[in-house]
Amino acid sequence: MKQIKETDLPGIGKKFQLMARSGEKIVIVVHDDGRREIYHFYREDPDDSISMVTLDDEESRCIAAILGGMTYRPKALETVDIALGDMVIEWHKIEPDAYAIGKTIKDLCVRQVTGGTIIAIVDLDQNKTVNPGPEASFRDGSTVVIIGDKNQVKACKHLLLHGSIK
């Protein structure tokens, strides 16, 4: 993936520009009031916009969850992890003998103990919880989406399975 160019827009917010591998340019403007504008430009003329969509904060987060694979993960990508610099997003399935089953994020003190953060839980019935609160509980077969550095994610997975990080 090519580099994303980030530009401050004083009094407005920030602009993010990406040239996709396809040669198309995408610009996202994040306004200070929470609105997002997405611009798509012609490949042949990267200064001529094809379309523009305005989303509010909730819509933007929903689209981000879809694009980030939190609402649907293609079968071919079920074991793929995503790296963002030194941060990692990993999908981890709760096995039948996992210590975490029936316990909550708060019960396990996940963030305090591991430094990792659970950003989504997808149950077997496809019930999805994005950005789960401390009361969210773990079920057998659920898939947990964890973000953190490599060691934090590893510690979080160990905590979920064994009840400790060692």
Please tag this protein with its features.
166 residues; five-stranded antiparallel sheet; single chain; 20% helix; alpha+beta
Shape: elongated
**What is the β-strand count?**
10
Q: How far is the N terminus from the C terminus?
A: 36 Å
Strand content: 25-35%
Strand order across the largest sheet: 1-2-3-4-5
Question: Any overview of this molecule?
Answer:
- This protein is of the alpha+beta class.
- It has four helices and ten strands.
- It has helices spanning 57-67, 105-108, 110-114, 150-162; strands at 5-9, 13-19, 25-31, 36-41, 49-55, 82-84, 87-93, 117-122, 128-130, 143-149.
- A five-stranded antiparallel sheet has the order 1-2-3-4-5.
- The protein is elongated and about 55 Å long.
- 17% of the residues are buried.
